[in-house]
Amino acid sequence: MSVDPLLLKQFDLFKPLPAEVIRQLSQYAQLVEVPRRKVVMEKNQLAHSLGLLLDGRLQGVDITLDGREAGLYFVEPNDFFGELAVVDQLPTHEMVISLVPSRFITVPAKIILQLVNEVPQVAALINARLAKRLREALTQRTLLTMPSPLQRVCAQLIRLTIKTPAGEQLIVLAPTHQEIAIMINVTRETVTRVFQKLQTHGVIVRNGNNLEIKDINYLSHVASGEQTE
C-alpha cells in the first residue's frame, strides 16, 4: 500500500525533491504501525529500507556481553533511522525498538541511495545526520565515564532538555526511568532515587508526560562535579 505524498513532505529529507519525485517515491514507501517494545530494526541485518518516524518514540539499543540493554540514542518524530546501514550497505550494529506505540514510514534502501547520489541536498542531510549520531555517541561515551550516578543522570537530563520560545526548559515526552537507566548504565532504582532527590530540591517538576527543568544550573553544577548534593 503506497503512502500519501503529503506524509513524505513532512520530512526535511524530502523537501528538496520536486512534487513529482515525491509522488513517485510514495509508490514505494510503506506505512508501519507498531506497539510498544516492538523491534523495528534488527541488529546484524543488511538494511532493506530507511525508516522515518511520524509519531511515537524509538530508541537505538545494543546488548552488552553480560546481556544488558545499552541505550544509544532516541529517535523522535520527523527524524529518520537506519541511515548508516543504508549508506555503507553493511549490517546494522544496533537494533531499534519502539518505546511507545509508533508509526513510521519505510523507503527502500536502493531508492535512498539513488537520491543520495543524485540530489546533493539529500546527501547533505544524510551526512549531517551521520555526523550528529557520531557526536552523540562520543558525548554519551564521555557521560559514561562520570564517576557517580547522580552526575550521569543530571548530564543525561541536560542532553534531553530543550528551550521553548517562552524560555522554559523542558524535556518533552520524558523517557521513563528504565529508558534513562539503560542510556547511562545504572539501575532503574538508582534513577528513581536521583529523581526523588531532584524533585525534593525543586530542580525538576513532572507535568504530564513532560518534565520541567526549574534549575538547569543545578544540573550543570552536579554534572560537572562542582556540586555533589
TL;DR?
By secondary structure, the chain is α+β, with helices and mostly antiparallel strands.
Main features:
single chain; four-stranded antiparallel beta sheet; alpha+beta; 229 residues; 41% helix; elongated; 9 helices
How can the largest sheet be summarized? 4 strands, antiparallel
| Beta strand count | 12
Low-pLDDT segments, ≥5 res? none
| Envelope shape | elongated
| Physical arrangement of strands within the biggest beta sheet | 1-8-3-6
Number of helices: 9
Structural class: alpha+beta
What is the rounded distance between the termini? 55 Å
Q: Provide the gyration radius in Å.
A: 19 Å
The average pLDDT score comes to 91
Describe the structure.
This protein has 229 residues and is an alpha+beta fold. Helix content is 41%, strand content 24%. The chain contains nine helices and twelve strands. The chain has helices at 5-8, 19-26, 83-88, 109-118, 120-144, 149-160, 177-184, 188-200, 216-223, and strands at residues 30-34, 39-41, 49-55, 58-63, 69-75, 80-81, 95-98, 102-108, 162-163, 169-171, 204-207, 210-213. The strands form three sheets. The chain has a four-stranded antiparallel sheet with strand order 1-8-3-6. A four-stranded antiparallel sheet has the order 2-7-4-5. Strands 9-10-12-11 form a four-stranded antiparallel sheet. A hairpin with a 5-residue loop joins strand 9 and strand 10 (169-171). The longest helix is centred in the middle third of the chain and has 25 residues, at 120-144. It is elongated. The protein starts with a helix and ends in a 6-residue tail after the last helix.
